[in-house]
Amino acid sequence: SIALENGVIGRYWDCITPFGSGGQPFQIYHLSKNGFSGDNATGIPLAKYLYWQMSFCIIAIIVVLTPVKITNIANIVRFLAWFGIIGNILLFSFVMLMSFNNKLGSKILNGFLKLFHKMHIIKNYDKAYEKAHKTFDNYQLCMKKSLKNPLNTIIQIFLGMFNIILNATIAYFIYLAFNYAYYLEGTMELAGWMQMVALSVLCDAAVSLVPLPGGSGAAELSFMGMFSLFFKSDMQFWAMLFWRLFTYYGIIFIGLI
User: What count of other Cβ atoms lies within 10 Å of the Cβ of residue 158?
Assistant: First the structure.
């Protein structure tokens, strides 16, 4: 129950915050309020974030190097996808450094503590310093234990990849819903599942660093560019709308509940 709630809370806040990465603080808060210690409440969401980033970068790199039938507009999306992949790798590397480099992590933590103290957010600096460093040390220990188990790491990466592929498969079913009747009539040949998944992953990679909640605007344009060859012109908008409904707005609705 707590895992399900935490997952939904994380996805909800990811959808309504810039860069799609605002869910972790709320997950940490939720876990701490449900009896988890500070190090575990911090370590679990960030470990999940690391595993997901590894999974996404692996799949995105494979997809972006795979030739697929696309338009000239989609080539721009593919180009933007490289920036998204590089940005995600840099974010992943930063969190890894924070998790395993005690010296660098302490310096960054001290910088935030001093900033918050100057802004009068932190009133008792010494008390906050001691508590923050104790939690940070325990967090690093939690992360090291998590990633020291090779089998657990492999399982988590494969689960992350499976989750990404399932989400990308939504575009394939939308494609079938709009085009299967033409296939039965014999007026259209259907594209394969792998191609639809690849195009969907490219869309996600291209908008992953857009500083807007859920990549609003950019996601829609990316979908229209990537999938314009696969829907009739009068159906492209509706296909995009259903795709966003199932992959973005539906998550917000569930999160509100």
Answer: 12
